[in-house]
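Exam revision sheet. Question 4 asks you to relate a sequence to its structure. Input first:
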Amino acid sequence: MNLESVLRAGFVIGFILLVEALCQSQVIGHSVMIPPSQMFVHLLSLAASGQFNQDIVFSFTNIIASACIAVVAGFLIGLAIHSLPRLREALEPLLASYYAVPTFIFYPVFIVIFGVGHGSIIAIAVLLGIVAMITATLTGLDRIPGVLRKSAAVMRMSRWQSAWLVMLPAALPYLFGGVKLAVAYAFIGVIASEFILSGSGIGYAIAFAYNNFESDNMYALMLLVLISVTVINSVLNFFDRRLQARRQR
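Answer key, structure tokens:
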């Protein structure tokens, strides 16, 4: 474990201990926030009871579907835009300002098209993540060293061989950055959408617990989201570091 990982873990643990101390000493009242230790214990009891299993499956199904669609579609669209310079010139200003548009304003349209449920939630999450993947694809293809293209031509590789064996591996570290962002936006889009577009899911369960003053359930589910995001991010960061180290060789 390197120094950065130790410092990161120390910061997180220190923050949790600080919040725990503030809650236990009533500086932060229990009506405002329960201690992290109580959140964790209650999360374990919810996992054992299976009370929210259906909501958890609903959310993670949407997250996986959204991330996969955003990554695949974003890569293919980015590939198409990169191969058409005039189209790229027209679209790049729009891509650069895309995240200034609040995607959630379109939720009434998605409800009309897809109804309340998986479709509208996935649509919003894909809209959030797809442009990050498009941008990462364009950046990755732009950063492929010219010497690799020349080497592929010297070895008389076909266009398919050149793309699969030379271009894609060279662009992969940049593409993986887009994958990380697409997954993060999928989480954001799905959980946030479930507050307003669904009668199921972790986001809906958190909102329901809040409206019914079920603080234990609310904070336990929030902790579940934080743990899930942290674990997935850690796994993605591990592979990202491997790819970056490989690129720098």
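Marking note for examiners. The mean pLDDT is 86.
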